[in-house]
Amino acid sequence: MTIFDRFIRYEWAEFALNVAMQKGDPSQIKPFLIMQGIAPQSGRRTANILSNMWFPKEPLYQRLKEKAVVLLPNLSTNEHLALHWGMSLCIFPIFSQTVKIIGSLSKIQETITKQEVISRILGEYSNQITIKRSIERIIQTLLNWGVLEQRENGFITSSPRIISNTELIEWLFEAVILKSPDRYLPLQDLIRANEIFPFDIQLPILSIYENPSFSIHRDASGEEIIGINYSVILG
User: Highest taxon of the source (predicted)?
Assistant: First the structure.
């Protein structure tokens, strides 16, 4: 399992994305970080996270990254967050679990504590020190990315960012499906997914049905299930 165990400033993620867009090499990331004042050892570990995020080895994630790079020139700077978010959901399981819990808690309470999030995840893992450190670094990162706001007794979620770009929304939905264990979800669970809490998604439902990258069917109970059309995704 790839661990998100370092604090990642937003501008560092942007640099890695730009390297990917320019078809550069991930080896460019560490020297950039050292120029930012990071010690070499820490720079190596931070660069590894950014490399995993924007230079994934898994074919489905590579395809997702390639689609992100195609989308990038048509996005506003504020919309870049959705790209970093989607790749992090797929690549880093603890990131995905952490933001899913934050999104869920934010629906029932205003202020959330770090310990609340940690306690809901630790029970699933034996290497608790490593997982706890990862959750702490993720929360620190989310504060820097502007999706959380620090309060004296915890943190709150920031106002959601409106996304109306249909292709970007469908890309983000694809990331949510790909990171799920079975790589399919009830359609309504996808639309209401807690792990995409930073975004106010404005998308006509019809566009999901019309997107050939998605496969939608009904299960035995009649519920609509959405998955990935691999023949389209992988060509």
Answer: Bacteria
